[in-house]
Amino acid sequence: SRQINLASRPSGWPTADNFDLVEVELPAPQEGQVLVRNLFMSVDPYMRGRMNDAKSYVPPFKLGEPLEGGTVGEVVESRAPGLAEGDLVLHGYGWREQVVVEAARVRRVDPIEGVSPTAYLGVLGMPGLTAYVGLLDVASFKEGEAVFVSGAAGAVGSIAGQIAKLKGASRVIGSAGSDEKVSHLYDLGFDAAFNYRNGPVTEQLRKAAPDGIDVYFDNVGADHLEAAIDSLNTGGRVAMCGAIAVYNATEPSPAPRNLFLAVGKRLTLRGFIVGDHSSRMRDMIAEVGGWLREGRISAQETVVDGLENAPAAFIGLMRGENTGKMIVRL
Ligand code: NDP
């Protein structure tokens, strides 16, 4: 079976040299274990942090060992009660074609009629939960409020914006890195959208939100956060979800330079990690799954074929080559 190991730690932007495609022999599953053939794996921005040798909320990937990440696979051999050949499972052992693993480490998932199993890596999985709890629990979004979402054409952002709309936002504004993505945001029902590469974010956001914003869902950080602080109304809230603008930076970002405005505007800026909110998974799947079945929410995916292309898919994700969830089909 083939897997991708971390060959070296990137400094700044990752390159193909940081990854090693290797062939390994898998042991036969022991009592309590299953052999899983992986079908789809996720590449996510947080993996960039795990490539650094730094203490964080998840331990770093180890050099010379396979990377990890959310994956959907099929059980091909089971020596564990409760799991049978053919079962669809979700687990964290991505970046490899097959894995032998303790049954406790995999979760059986039901195939949903008319919905691809990749949904468990996106809209009905970790990114969907991030959007749901970030908007509703962390930023305490209420009906009638105006919401700005950055990284809005991505996995988390596209769902966050649509949930805000479905929950009665007065106005939803999104930013993304290309004109195609901007027109896609209008298709998703955003009230306004702009391409952050076309001019200063602060000016573009002021135009898109003439009455200001009440909630900012931050996927980008830096100049986007500065623009949001500028446009936030008194009592505004920020769900600090990510800061992809700085993940590959070798120098700290000077923005946001206007943080002091948080005082007079009584702003709340609140960071969160989705793993602390797993108790909300059921609610999210019930509500967002319902919208998905009714065709009221749409979840795009960009699918790259082949394990050997997983590093390129990951680097492409950081460059904005995806619309919606970036997935690798194995
Ligand atoms: P996305 O699907 O949004 O993919 C990343 C996107 O980031 C790219 O498509 C690109 O789109 C955009 N991007 C890259 N560089 C920049 C830049 N310099 N400025 C602005 N946009 C940029 O990924 P996810 O939806 O999986 O993740 C979105 C964010 O949420 C990330 O910051 C991630 O770390 C965070 N996150 C946080 C979690 C938590 O628990 N707190 C959990 C999951 C995700 P474009 O073409 O528009 O530039």
Summarize the structure.
The protein is an alpha/beta fold and 330 residues long. It has nine helices and 15 strands. NADPH dihydro-nicotinamide-adenine-dinucleotide phosphate binds next to helix 2, helix 3 and helix 9.
Could you explain the architecture of this structure?
The protein is of the alpha/beta class and 330 residues long. It has 2 domains: 2-121 and 300-329, Medium-chain alcohol dehydrogenases, catalytic domain (Quinone Oxidoreductase, Chain A, domain 1); 126-275, 3-Layer(aba) Sandwich (Rossmann fold). The protein is built from 9 helices and 15 strands. It has helices at residues 46-50, 126-138, 155-166, 179-187, 201-208, 222-231, 261-264, 281-293, 310-319, and strands at residues 2-6, 19-23, 33-42, 71-78, 88-91, 98-102, 107-108, 146-149, 171-176, 192-195, 213-218, 232-240, 268-271, 301-305, 325-329. Strands 3, 4, 5, 6, 7, 14 and 15 form a 7-stranded mixed sheet that branches. A 6-stranded parallel sheet has the order 10-9-8-11-12-13, with helices on both faces. Helix 6 links the parallel strand 11 (213-218) and strand 12. It is globular and about 60 Å long. 46% of the residues are buried. The model has no long low-confidence stretch (mean pLDDT 97). NADPH dihydro-nicotinamide-adenine-dinucleotide phosphate is lined by residues 44-46, 127, 130, 151, 153-157, 176-178, 181, 196, 219-220, 241-242, 244-245, 272-274, 317-318, 320, 322, 326. This is NADP-dependent oxidoreductase. Residues 15-328 form the Enoyl reductase (ER) domain. GO terms for molecular function: oxidoreductase activity, acting on the CH-CH group of donors, NAD or NADP as acceptor.
